[in-house]
């Protein structure tokens, strides 16, 4: 059995996978990060319970941020902790907590390989001209102001089985929407940048905004930096435009009933198109588009809208119902110049598959 | 001597932060009678202010310490009257950022001046200089009608899904936070010239204009004669990478610079506006032409060039997507016209959007309007030297005919 532990900002989710059978949702569980940290014996007890029935082959962790230090999956050992803790400065509300959780697993899982997967690792391969901003050199390179990206696990999985040389745009529709250009297994653009503010709007954050607005509000209207940060991060997005707190699937359902909802969707789609444009420009063409993410199953109308808008590139939408092959849905017809897929795999499932690959690799001693 | 009553001499004034470009244009024939530029105004430099004055076939240079744009204008008017014996029927001022106060060309009176005054904080570099000059002319030359022509007016047709930021509605409404767009005079001129050159009706054309200047740059999407999107935003900071401006930027970096590096809001703004862009990346120069010259041997120059080009390409493909394929792609302003390497890199591997450059025509381009697209390009690619002054004169002449002023 393999445990996949999703280390979010607020919550920890554990899923249990067995070979060939997918995950056992009955024993998957979600815990509040802080409660988990308070109850020191909790993790050890849980592991013991699980081990009574069946041997744990590995525990994998999905970690949001790995900075410059982690460019792929890694076995968690003492050296790992030393490097991981160095990232505290970048993400002080996250790194120490996750580090503590990992430590507890390490203490209770002696002899079991623990493996870390990072959402940013894939983007360490971004070419320099895509990684950095047009800021004075010293701030970019020395202070670590660069595009860290996000959803690397999805973007990698979306594009790894495509033929060599394929120009693919990967779009992840999740709590945050991100767009990534991939060719030959390497990323060439990513919509999310130094912080989750940049890129595409979400339920409460604004996505792209003129940085001049920040200065205008501070210098002309006396807003504090913290107030603006709060506005952009947690009062904007779908909430800001519509006045109602909602996630993307809800927004999609309500389209056509209210002008504010339609405007929010219009802005969202425009931002999504900008980054799809960026990705296609980065690749110098477009052979396939692959969608994934926890909201993608509810976003069929969005996928069709994007395909309609891009029909001038030779995209033909297949007639419904779309054909499924395993968890891959084919959304474009046979004659379509650009192939379009929807990957219905869950993130934990992808991490489980990567864990099996990792364990099978000869470099791991068990 | 006053010219033919039907003809009007319009003096177009285009203020930069430390320069004043002027052109005396006889309308409706669009004949440039006199042109020139006053440089190094009101700033500390090693040299004194210089006016370079072109009239007929002659060039005249006047070196004189000039405190600001008003004083420079007096000197210029003196030159025009003494040297050339020419009179003018109107002043036409280019004005960068009128916010929500003006959406079309306006004849200046006291109430217009009051409204203009409210717009000063919107473009802290450009607006005050222009405002002061308009105010100066209004008092000093009260008999000559004055008009302000706005860089933003062309963009008033941008639809809500492209001008709205995903910010709280109340805050955006209260402070007027929305995409305004800039370089409208140039984008509009490019559209008109492109349609005239290709003998197309602008109402049937989908056009992308790349206004690539040595200072500011922006890309515009035009449909049915109307701007529907522009890469600049609420301020001229958003969009493309410029000589010293960063363009699109994660707002989170501003908070980083302020909290970790202890910069004040003014210092952080100064970094993004005046120390970033090409200058920030390349440090030796803010001029893309220097970057192009050195990028064969200098890695920093190569990265700066690639980043610059990538950003333009992002907007060209994005706008191709919202237009669902462009009929015309225009390159204008100094870098767009003078640098074939910039056009080549922007158009490289763009076949999928219908854009195919003829490399020979591109490098052979020398002057005027030319079509540099390959015969199998679905999008016509044009180089059009910008002439904002002619566009401003057209606007003002149209306005003068309408309300019969100055005659």
Structure characterization notes:
The complex is a heterodimer of chains A (366) and B (407). Helix content of chain A is 38%, strand content 18%. Chain A has helices at residues 33-38, 42-53, 78-85, 95-108, 128-131, 137-143, 152-159, 211-219, 225-234, 237-242, 248-254, 259-283, 300-309, 347-360, and strands spanning 2-7, 11-18, 22-23, 29-32, 58-63, 74-75, 114-118, 168-173, 177-183, 186-190, 288-292, 323-325, 328-330, 339-343. In chain A, a hairpin with a 2-residue loop joins strand 9 and strand 10. In chain A, helix 2 (42-53) packs across helix 4. Chain A starts with a strand and ends in a 6-residue tail after the last helix. Chain B is of the alpha/beta class. In chain B, the strands form two sheets. An eight-stranded mixed beta sheet of chain B has the order 5-4-3-2-1-6-8-7, sandwiched between helices. In chain B, helix 6 (184-198) crosses helix 15 (388-403) and helix 10 (288-294) packs across helix 11 (299-323). The mean pLDDT of chain B is 92. Chains A and B meet through helix 5, helix 6, helix 8, helix 9 and helix 10 of A and helix 4, helix 5, helix 7, helix 8 and helix 9 of B.
């Amino acid at each position: 059995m393999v445990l996949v532990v999703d280390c979010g900002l607020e919550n920890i989710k554990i899923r249990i996978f067995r070979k060939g059978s997918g995950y056992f949702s009955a024993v998957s569980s979600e815990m509040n990060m802080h409660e988990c940290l308070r109850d020191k014996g909790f993790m050890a007890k849980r592991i013991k319970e699980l081990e009574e029935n069946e041997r744990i082959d590995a525990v994998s962790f999905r970690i949001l941020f790995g900075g410059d230090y982690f460019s792929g999956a890694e076995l968690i050992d003492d050296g790992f902790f030393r490097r991981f803790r160095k990232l505290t400065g970048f993400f002080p509300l996250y790194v120490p907590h996750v580090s503590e959780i990992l430590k507890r697993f390490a203490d209770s899982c002696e002899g079991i390989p623990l493996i870390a997967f990072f959402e940013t690792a894939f983007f360490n391969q971004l070419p320099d001209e895509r990684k950095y901003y047009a800021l004075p050199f010293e701030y970019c390179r020395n202070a670590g102001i660069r595009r860290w990206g996000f959803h690397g696990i999805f973007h990698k999985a979306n594009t790894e089985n495509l033929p060599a040389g394929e120009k693919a745009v990967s779009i992840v529709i999740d709590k945050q929407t991100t767009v990534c250009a991939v060719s030959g297994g390497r990323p060439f653009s990513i919509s999310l940048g130094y912080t989750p503010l940049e890129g595409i709007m979400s339920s409460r954050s604004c996505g792209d905004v003129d940085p001049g607005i920040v200065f205008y509000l501070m210098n002309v209207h006396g807003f504090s930096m913290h107030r603006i940060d709060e506005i952009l991060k947690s009062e904007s997005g779908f909430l800001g435009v519509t006045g109602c707190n909602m996630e993307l699937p809800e927004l999609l359902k309500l389209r056509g009933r209210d002008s504010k909802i339609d405007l929010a969707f219009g802005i969202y789609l425009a931002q999504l198109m900008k980054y799809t444009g960026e990705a296609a420009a980065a690749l110098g063409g477009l052979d396939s588009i692959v969608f994934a993410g926890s909201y993608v199953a509810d976003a069929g109308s969005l996928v069709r809208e994007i395909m309609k808008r891009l029909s001038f590139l030779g995209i033909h939408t297949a007639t419904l119902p779309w054909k499924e092959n395993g968890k891959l849905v084919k959304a474009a017809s046979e004659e379509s110049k650009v192939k379009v897929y929807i990957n219905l795999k869950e993130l934990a499932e992808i991490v489980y598959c990567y864990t099996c690959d990792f364990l099978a690799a000869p470099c791991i001693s068990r | 001597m006053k010219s033919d009553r039907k003809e009007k001499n319009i003096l177009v004034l285009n203020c930069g932060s430390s320069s004043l470009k002027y052109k005396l244009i006889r309308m409706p024939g669009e004949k440039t009678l006199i042109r020139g530029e006053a440089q190094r105004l009101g700033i500390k430099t090693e040299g004194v202010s210089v006016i370079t004055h072109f009239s007929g076939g002659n060039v005249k240079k006047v070196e004189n310490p000039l405190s600001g744009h008003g004083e420079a204008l007096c000197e210029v008017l003196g030159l025009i009257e003494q040297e050339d014996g020419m009179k003018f029927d109107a002043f036409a001022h280019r004005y960068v950022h009128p916010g929500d106060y003006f959406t079309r060309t306006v004849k200046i009176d006291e109430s217009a001046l009051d409204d203009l005054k409210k717009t000063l904080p919107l473009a802290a570099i450009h607006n005050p200089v222009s405002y002061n000059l308009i105010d100066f002319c209004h008092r000093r030359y009260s008999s000559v009608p004055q008009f302000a022509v706005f860089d933003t007016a062309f963009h008033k047709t941008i639809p809500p899904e492209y001008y709205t930021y995903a910010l709280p509605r109340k805050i955006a409404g209260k402070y007027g936070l929305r995409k305004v767009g800039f370089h409208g005079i140039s984008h509009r001129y490019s559209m008109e010239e492109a349609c005239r050159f290709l003998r197309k009706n602008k109402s049937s054309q989908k056009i992308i204009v790349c206004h690539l200047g040595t200072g500011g740059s922006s890309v515009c999407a035009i449909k049915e004669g109307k701007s529907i999107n522009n890469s600049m935003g609420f301020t001229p900071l958003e969009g493309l990478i410029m000589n010293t401006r960063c363009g699109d930027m994660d707002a989170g970096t501003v908070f980083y610079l302020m909290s970790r590096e202890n910069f004040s809001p003014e210092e952080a703004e100064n970094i993004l506006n005046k120390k970033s862009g090409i200058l920030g990346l390349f440090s030796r120069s803010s001029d893309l032409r220097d970057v192009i010259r050195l990028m064969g041997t200098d890695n920093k120059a190569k990265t700066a060039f690639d980043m610059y080009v990538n950003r333009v390409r992002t907007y060209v493909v994005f706008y191709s997507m919202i237009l669902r394929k462009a009929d015309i792609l225009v390159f204008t302003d100094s870098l767009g016209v003078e640098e074939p390497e910039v056009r080549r890199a922007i158009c490289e591997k763009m076949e999928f959007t219908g854009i195919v450059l003829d490399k020979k025509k591109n490098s052979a381009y020398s002057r005027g309007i030319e079509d540099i697209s390959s015969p199998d390009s679905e999008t016509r690619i044009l180089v059009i030297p910008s002439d904002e002054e002619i566009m401003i004169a057209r606007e003002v002449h149209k306005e003068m005919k309408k309300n019969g002023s100055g005659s």
